[in-house]
Amino acid sequence: MSEDNDSERVAFWKKNFLGDTYRGLDAAAEEEDPSHPQDFTKEGLDAKEVVLCLSKSIVSLVSSVDGKPLFGCTGTVVNHVGSETWILTSATLVRKPGTDHDAYKADEVKIEVLLDNKRSINGRLAMCNLQYNIAVVTIELQFGLPIVALNDPPEYYSILGRPVVAVGRDSKSQVLLVRHGNMIRKRSKLDCSELLLCTCPVSKTFIGGLVMDFERRIIGISFFGEDTTPVMPIEIVSRCLKHFKKFRTLKLPCLCIRGHAVHSLELRSLEILCLNFPELSCGIGIVVDQISGESPENFGGIEAGDIICSIDGVVLHSLAQLTAMLLDKFFAMKSEKTMVLQAVMRRPRDNSKFVAMLNIWENSSVECSNSFSNRWPLL
Q1: Gap between the Cα atoms of 36 and 214, Å rounded
Q2: 38 with 104, same domain?
Q3: Mean pLDDT for back-to-back runs of 10 residues, the chain (379 residues)
Q4: Are 168 and 205 in contact, with CB atoms under 8 Å apart?
Q5: How far apart are CA 297 and CA 230, in angstroms?
Q6: A Pfam family name for this chain (predicted)?
Q7: Per the domain annotation, does 335 fall within a domain?
Q8: How far does Cα 369 stand from its chain's mean position?
């Protein structure tokens, strides 16, 4: 591309995409988000082109309690149901300050939804789940707001390193915000074992917004971290929405096991593991880090350090895949509150192989109510 064409491309984005914000970006927002929002590198311009088609579906949400501002973040239009339009966002929008596991109820919090055309609409909290840090806010039906389809990516797709884009909408200027980076194969420091990580340099404004690749495949929704950006996989988010649409609640599985994917191991650890179990060399399996203090028989004798290779014949490559599979099984259940699954295991401690029967509860049961609840601290 010639220098003249590059200049024309930059001029186009300044005039048509960024509007007057290029001349007068809110100083407070700029101070909070020092990652140079006016990115006119080739990668930055490509990222803007990727998200432009979604701009009408990306909104800003601002919550307040008793007239005092609580939080502002990003949301995405994901459905039109009856007389309502659904907006997917982060439960951080309504979480009570200074608490890990408590959020305001719908009648305790006021939510303002700011659209792409700078119009403001009152929203209502319809669903909040602190385990996976997602929420649904509803507004009066707006057919003019396109729905973003939340489809599963191809198998193994989300665990591969690839360029991605994080999307947000600023609550002050109400302009679309874009950051680009890469998916990375590391473990999040947060409690939630299913989280992915990317290097998009986001601010807290991006919380609840989409992370997508340059082919416009949705990877998940973003949170906020110091060095990397945690991403809740779309496989989990979409199934939570499916549960809520059918049951008006979430039937969440409680496995009471924390772990991490084999592919996220350091190379040296992976090498030692594969010497004894060559079949794991392609990165399949989940390493068990921690087991709840419930009765050991509920976990079929599984110990910390064991590797879950498959569940009911399905080979595992990520925690997100396992959680999505369990959500599907609970969606299909009727009145049952528990299920028993067959897990094929490997035990590096003595190089043994065995089969374990796992008892899975619905998360609303007494056994799981206080077990392994995820926390989402804002650093």
Answers
A1: 20
A2: yes
A3: 51 41 35 48 74 92 96 97 97 93 95 92 96 96 94 79 92 90 90 93 96 92 93 96 93 83 88 90 89 68 93 93 93 83 94 92 56 75
A4: yes
A5: 34
A6: Trypsin_2
A7: yes
A8: 22
